Amino acid sequence: MIAQQLYEGIEIGKAGNTGLITYMRTDSTRISDVAKAEAKAYIVGKYGESYLGKGQGKQKNPENAQDAHEGIRPTSALRQPKEIKDYLSRDQFRLYKLIWERFIASQMAPAVMDTVRCDLVQAGVMFRATGSKIKFPGFMKVYIEGRDDNKSESDQENFLPELEEGMTVTKEKLDPKQHFTQPPPRYTEARLVRTMEEIGIGRPSTYVRANH
């Protein structure tokens, strides 16, 4: 319902009734050349040429995708969420912001990560931390996908601060944990939709009914 409102149009000040997103009942990933050019202009102007993705997010449509309409995107990449926030309800803003950020991120360069291992020695005992360090943020400047799977700590991506050999660090807290085998987590709406996509069940317009 919120997506339909954004598609049909919202009163945006002097601009009047303005459709904010393209047709949302599609699972196509195809994006028009006009939209790509506008996204390119925004990315280069805001972050620089190095943040522009090669091929600008070219991607094959999923098998059996309905391609009558292009992928879901903002009608203008230059219409930033913060600029129209005052004209939108809380839910309208959150959905528009999600669509806008994911579209812009899809046209940006990949993030580059360094894998880091840190060994801390105290009184002859070694403590080891493994994680990642952002070498080049790329699309993460705009969007980082949230986690809704209750994964174990070892499965999560940990970002470590800048460290140098010989540094002295101070313990801020100690958080001892004992882990037991856990049953699979309940499906959240995001996990349910992603699982349905992977299996090939339904299309975006049917997912909301599945969630209920």
Question: Can you tell me about this structure?
Answer:
The protein has 212 residues and is an alpha+beta fold. It has three domains: 2-109, Topoisomerase I, domain 4, CATH 1.10.290; 112-155, no CATH class; 179-212, no CATH class. It has six helices and four strands. The longest helix is centred in the middle third of the chain and has 17 residues, at 90-106. The radius of gyration is 21 Å and the shape is extended.
Q: What Rg is obtained from the alpha carbons, in whole angstroms?
A: 21 Å
Q: In the residues, how many domains can be counted?
A: 3
Report the total helices: 6
Average pLDDT, all residues = 83
Characteristic key phrases:
6 helices, Topoisomerase I, domain 4, alpha+beta, two-stranded antiparallel ribbon, 212 residues, 3 domains
List the helices and strands and how they pair.
Elements lengths: L1 H7 L1 E2 L5 E2 L14 H15 L33 H4 L5 H17 L5 E11 L2 E12 L52 H11 L4 H8 L1
Antiparallel strand pairs: 1-2, 3-4
Helix pairs in contact: 1-4, 5-6
